[in-house]
Amino acid sequence: MRRLNGVVTHRFREKASVFLTELHPARDSGERAQVQAVLRRRDFDATHHCSAWREGVPVVAFGSDDDGEPSGTAGRPMLAVLEGAQVSDLMAVCVRWYGGTKLGTGGLVRAYTEGVQGALAVADAAKAWEEVRILRRGEIRVPTAQAHLPFALLGAFPEAAALDQRFDGESALLRFECPPDLAPALDHAWRERSRGGVIRWG
Asked: How many CA atoms lie within 13 A of 2 on its CB side?
């Protein structure tokens, strides 16, 4: 996943209509509302302020708004581009000044898609991203005498990392984290190594 670390813009013209797409870091509804308020005041003479957004790493919420364009021709295509780019905690706003020539539904989809793709390209060129790793946490509890076994398991999976180990009476608890797609392999390996043991996932 990637997060944006600054505002980027992309402007182009399509059959006399002017499109200005901006990408803004925005991690919650309050920040998104502030972005929209600022752009609507600044570009008060625009015909539409269409938008799409994703929130959270991993993504916990997303949405889009056609702002008066025919349903599904603006916000949804913009959101699809953001999803494909694996970005989050940002808002894309595409401001349109209608130039008098209708684009049709297909033309609108292409224009709003191009707007977000162009803004993402600007962000890529400016290296305006920070990479965010998504990790899953797990716990393995074993008798104290077998406290070494979870470490032996993690040693076979370089992408997994131990966080801490705690001793409680006659048992030892190892907490670790790993990429989510590694969890099934760890589950299988631990069941075999421990003869039926289970990993508790957070």
From this structure: 17
Q: Residue 36: how many CB atoms within 10 A of its CB?
A: 19
In whole angstroms, give the CA distance from residue 70 to residue 189: 52
Q: What is the pLDDT of residues 75-91, one digit of tens each?
A: 999 999 999 999 999 99
Return residue ranges of the chain for CATH 3.30.230.30: 2-131
- Which one is the CATH code of 136-201: 3.30.70.240, 3.40.1390.30, 3.40.50.880, 3.30.930.10? 3.30.70.240
First and final C-alpha spacing in the chain: 20
Within 49-144, residue ranges assigned H as helices are 75-84, 104-125
CATH, domain range 2-131 = 3.30.230.30
Q: C-alpha dihedral over 177, 179, 180, 182, to 10 degrees?
A: -100
**Kind and range of the H or E run holding 87:** strand 87-88
The tens digit of pLDDT for each residue in 152-164 reads 999 999 999 999 9
